Amino acid sequence: MPGYKLYTHDAPFPMRLGGSLPGFQIAYETWGRLAPSRDNAILLTTGLSPGSHARSHPEAPAPGWWEEFVGPGLALDTDRWFVVCSNVLGGCAGSTGPSSPDPRTGRPFALSFPSLTIEDMVTAQRALLRHLGIEKLHTAIGSSMGGMQSLAFAALFPGEVANVVAISAAGRSYPWSIAIRFVQRQAVLSDPDWMGGDYYGARGPLNGLHVARQLGTISYRGPGEWAPRFGRKRVPVPGLPQDGHVADQEPRFPDRPGIAAAHAHRFGVDFQIESYLAHQGDKFVERYDANSYLYISKAMDLFDLGEGMGSFEEGVARIRARALVVGVPTDLLFPLRLQEELAEALRAGGRDTTFRMLDSIYGHDSFLVEVDTLTAILKEFLEPASPV
């Protein structure tokens, strides 16, 4: 995507699990104006796949991934707030990641990129904020992995954020989501075109990444959405009735060798729900690096606010910010009980904590769909928000 700016960090950057980067770059975009008092900054953190383009602007007019939430008069009102969003460290949308050239060799880092954690991501974002002249955030806000980042920022740098918002997120990963992400990574690792991670300049593990994204899509949406949206509707095929079987159809993606084979003939795309999943996979492999997927996915598994502390509650107690926790009853990936656990831990630590349930059929991705309801929740929290 065009339109982002780059922050370059020239000093060595040690990573939490060992190893270091000789430096890094972070792609970021901003909306609104930083107040002279520098007390109106909001850090918007991203999920696994989005880049920094949360909202359209003159240099990048395409709609952003949170277009209906960021802007004048919207949930993150850019007439009031200065919103900063970055592509995470380890990503592939402008920030330094496995596909970036290692300045020591001139070749992509690939698997020489050090192991990555959520804490590494927010430490890099903190360096970006310092570059922008921001020493304290009014609010750190994120959904899914972004919620993990906002919590990690508030825990690592408790004196530097006044308010924290975690939407469809958790203070630690649990077995079900770890299991899903493990299988997704196995799909990539088992693709012969992964080539031990050294596939740059070649085709790359498109089939494996395609399957991984399909599995991810199933975990992102609520099961109650599928029946009314797709039912048992078939994919229309010329020469067959609407409800006909597509036993020997031609590949639906002839311009994508290899991927096409996975969708051809009698075991391929038949139902509309299958076509939808295939489409999600197609879009993803066109814009995402497989190694970034592996690193960032694993970072989500490793996240635990209680790691290295006496307990999970002690880890959460490092957060001193006023907090909003939002959960969705139909969320398969981050079930509601995880947001309840987080809110209870925050309250046990004496934090001013608001818990809101976003009642929606759309599952984990409800924060992308339920614009009006979530906007009302965010505005209610931010309007009287504590000053920096």
Beta-strand share of residues: 5-15%
Alpha-beta content class: alpha/beta
| SSE succession | EEEEEEEEHEHEHHHHHHEHEHH
Question: Order of strands side by side in the largest beta sheet?
Answer: 1-4-8-5-9-10-11-12
Instruction: Extract low-pLDDT stretches.
Output: 239-254
Query: For the report, how would you describe the main beta sheet?
Result: 8 strands, mixed
Average of per-residue pLDDT values = 91
The CATH superfamily name of the largest domain is Alpha/Beta hydrolase fold, catalytic domain
**Termini gap:** 33 Å
Brief summary of the model shown:
The chain is of the alpha/beta class.
Reconstruct the topology from this structure.
Blueprint: E1 5-9, E2 13-14, E3 20-21, E4 24-31, E5 41-45, E6 70-71, E7 76-77, E8 82-86, H1 118-131, E9 137-143, H2 145-156, E10 161-167, H3 175-189, H4 206-220, H5 223-229, H6 272-285, H7 290-302, H8 312-316, E11 322-327, H9 336-348, E12 353-357, H10 366-369, H11 371-382
Parallel strand pairs: 5-8, 5-9, 6-7, 9-10, 10-11, 11-12
Antiparallel strand pairs: 1-4, 2-3, 4-8
Question: What can you see in these coordinates?
Answer:
With 388 residues, this protein is α/β, with parallel strands linked by helices. It folds into 2 domains: 5-172 and 304-382, Rossmann fold; 177-292, Rna Polymerase Sigma Factor, Chain: A. It has helices spanning 118-131, 145-156, 175-189, 206-220, 223-229, 272-285, 290-302, 312-316, 336-348, 366-369, 371-382, and strands at residues 5-9, 13-14, 20-21, 24-31, 41-45, 70-71, 76-77, 82-86, 137-143, 161-167, 322-327, 353-357. An 8-stranded mixed β-sheet has the order 1-4-8-5-9-10-11-12, sandwiched between helices. A two-stranded antiparallel ribbon has the order 2-3. A two-stranded parallel sheet has the order 6-7.
